[in-house]
Amino acid sequence: MIKQRGQSGWAISLADKTVRLPDLRANPDRYTRLLADAHAQKTAHCGCREPMLPIVVRCRGARYHLACWPNEGPRHDPRCPFFHLAPALSGRQAYSDAAIHETATGTAIQFAEPLTVHVGDTSSDQVLGDGSGPSKRRRSVGALGVLHHLWESARLNAWNARQRHRTWPTVAEALGEQLADTVVSGHRGNEAVYVVPPYRADAAAANMERFDRFLGSLRRNATQIRRGLVLGELKAVRPTRYGVAYQLAHQSPQRQIFAAATVDDNLRRRHPVALGQAGERAGGRPIVLLYIERSPNGYAVALGGATMLTTPDYIPADSSYEIRMAGALTAAGRSYIKPVAYDQAEAVLPDFVLTDQPDAYVEVWGLPGRDFYEQRKARKLAHYQRHARTLIEWDVAQPFPTIPPAPTTRTTQR
Questions:
Q1: 191-228 burial, b if ≥16 CB within 10 A, otherwise e?
Q2: What are the pLDDT tens digits along the chain (414 aa)?
Q3: Could you give the 3-state DSSP secondary structure of residue 46?
Q4: Dihedral, CA atoms, 254, 260, 263, 267, nearest 10 degrees?
Q5: Based on the domain organization, do 138 and 40 belong to the same domain?
Q6: 260 and 300 share one domain
Q7: Distance between CA atoms of residues 197 and 42, nearest Å
Q8: Among 310, 340, 372, which residue terminates a domain?
Q9: 413 domain residue, yes or no
Q10: Distance (Å, rounded) from C-alpha 343 to C-alpha 131?
Q11: Residues 94 and 211 in one domain
Q12: Is there a single domain that holds both residue 153 and residue 214?
């Protein structure tokens, strides 16, 4: 049996010395020498299980940080910061190693659309979707898949009861750390993907210069066009003479991203929930990953991308009802993870997995009477009958259920 850990945090071992993970994260510079030794000796372990599980010490410039050992996330205690859901509870399972390749040094992603285009290649002139077609499903990752991968790897789809409120600065920092360990189609992640930095009045000019440098890196000459990705929260969509302009939260209105009407129509067709009014009324936040190039006049132009609805705390949600359920789980002091489907629209996954008790799930039942939905519901219920100890359900046509508090004690079988 694993002993119950308190809220003081997990102990980890670095070069055979024990430290508390919260202490290390609060003051990483204090542990630089110890992290360097553990990095060189490959002797870092997490104490959430007995025996301890190996974790990775990665070096980025002169700074070190910890990461989960590749494919070992499901072995950690569900309350551990290094825990990830089993492959069967994520859309990531549908990809080959060529699409997402994870090693001790980081992750390589093969994006479904080219980041370098040869002039005259007419295949790159079409209106792009999210890469979810069958031919791209296994050996490359579409825009929604990249978005979900970043959220899942950075544990932004997870909520801990000890958290209060998650803000964009927290999200942007977590995404930046993840991209620093990621390669996208042969390009460094933080060079291929621009994450909108949080707005601060004293940094507004520097942030505009940062975006301009990224846009300037998208070179265009007689033979090649370089493209990139921009990730941020969608604040407004405004009509223009030729289509629309996307205004991103925290981004200067002078740095909008333009798109043809056909591109915007395609995004809305593929992601109606994320861009719908129901999610907005529920307080949802639409997150976009836009595939862009620089126009001859120097503007950022979106050729496609993907959108994802999230709760006010940036937890992914598939509907306005899930936003309400996530809020209720948070208010009840529950810890949970939202499984993400990547590009696999047909994936059958739980709506939420509770991590404060074993084998506990949450389902929000909607769309009653539709054949495809009833079939998915039957598959889920059959799985829960075999594997779930606890199932919290809400049929949206019925009153909202009472969310029980988390168990006060919990032990987990090894």
A1: ebbbbbbbeeeeeeeebeeebeebbeebebeeeebbbb
A2: 233 344 446 799 999 999 999 899 888 889 999 999 999 999 999 999 999 999 999 987 778 889 999 999 999 999 999 999 998 899 999 999 999 999 999 999 999 999 999 877 655 554 455 544 444 447 999 999 999 999 999 999 999 999 989 999 999 999 999 999 999 999 999 999 999 999 999 999 999 999 999 999 998 888 899 999 999 999 999 999 999 999 999 999 999 999 999 999 999 999 999 999 999 999 999 999 999 999 999 999 999 999 999 999 999 999 999 999 999 999 999 999 999 999 988 888 999 999 999 999 999 998 777 788 888 899 899 989 998 999 999 999 999 999 999 998 544 333
A3: strand
A4: 50
A5: no
A6: yes
A7: 33
A8: 310
A9: no
A10: 7
A11: yes
A12: yes
Q: Are residues 133 and 68 in the same domain?
A: no
Torsion of CA 349, 352, 358, 359, to 10 degrees: -30
How many domains does the chain contain in total? 3
Residue-range definition of the domain harbouring residue 66: 11-75
Query: Same domain, yes or no, for 135 and 61?
Result: no
Non-local (6+) Cβ contacts of 46 within 8 A are 10, 12, 21, 52, 53, 54, 55, 76, 80, 82
Q: Looking at the structure, do residues 39 and 149 belong to the same domain, yes or no?
A: no
Let me know if residue 2 belongs to a domain.
no
